[in-house]
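P.,

For your records, the input lines for the assembly:
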Amino acid sequence: MHPVPISVPALVTGASSGLGEGFARRLAGRGHELVLVARRTDRLERLADELRPLSGAAVEVLGADLETAAGRNRVAGRLSAGGPWLLVNNAGFGTRGRFAEQDVKREDAEVLVNAFAVRQLMRAALPGCLGARAGGVLNVASTAAFQPIPHMATYAATKAFVLHLTEAVATELRGSGVRAMALCPGPTRTEFGNVAGVEEDFAQMGPLYMSAESVVRTAMRAFDRGDVMCVPGVVNQAGVTSVRLAPRFAVRRILDPVFRKR
Ligand SMILES: NC(=O)c1ccc[n+]([C@@H]2O[C@H](COP(=O)([O-])OP(=O)(O)OC[C@H]3O[C@@H](n4cnc5c(N)ncnc54)[C@H](OP(=O)(O)O)[C@@H]3O)[C@@H](O)[C@H]2O)c1
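Structure tokens returned:
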């Protein structure tokens, strides 16, 4: 496969920071028209002003809270109104702590943003892509998708959903000219660590704590090739492989203390 043609516009969710901002910069550099989605529209407006001269194409800001049906429907409506699209389903966040003690509303929102919105927006984008035999969807999962994670139980489960959904849909799309890829980053230097309360743990990982730029660069290369899954970094790849080979009870027990709150 080749890179998605720049005539296909890109919509990036969670473009106000971290990986989403990185994807927006990279796609603008290629010359795609862009739609930037997040809640913090002040940040999106600043990014759009910076990216317009870089891309030479239109950069639109679409404020939406993906926790809400209204926000998700606004973005889904934009996607289903035309196409094809290059959709980067990136918005998401993590929560940490014992499942039974977690803030119920916050974890409801986590499922809605990380999983429900990803499925809804991919469903909205694909018919236009299939009609044009172009474009596709890059869904941001995580290395957390490969195993249950005690003390980040809901987060890991949402990412397993994204990985399985994407792999299944990508297989259905074979031969259609449309691609779907799950990106599974390990710890990455963004605002995620602070939001999820894991920044101190991530900061101790030294070189394993990857930059957003290098994750985005690796992801775009894999997406250009038509890969179905991308795990950036050899150490993350080794981790994912060992988790697949190890007995599940051992994986659960090894991970139990890792994100336990101290
Ligand atoms: N960083 C890591 O270590 C890591 C590892 C594996 C996977 N990931 C995944 O990578 C993706 C991007 O995260 P990041 O690392 O770049 O973290 P980040 O810097 O915190 O960015 C998260 C983005 O998601 C958006 N977002 C959150 N809740 C939203 C909502 N309700 N509605 C709309 N947008 C919302 C945020 O925008 P607003 O706050 O402006 O709405 C922000 O742009 C996430 O899906 C995350 O799970 C991250």
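Two observations worth noting. The first strand starts at residue 10 and ends at 13. Residues 14, 16-20, 38-40, 64-67, 90-94, 113, 140, 142, 185, 187-188, 190-192, 195 surround NAP (CB under 6 Å).

Regards
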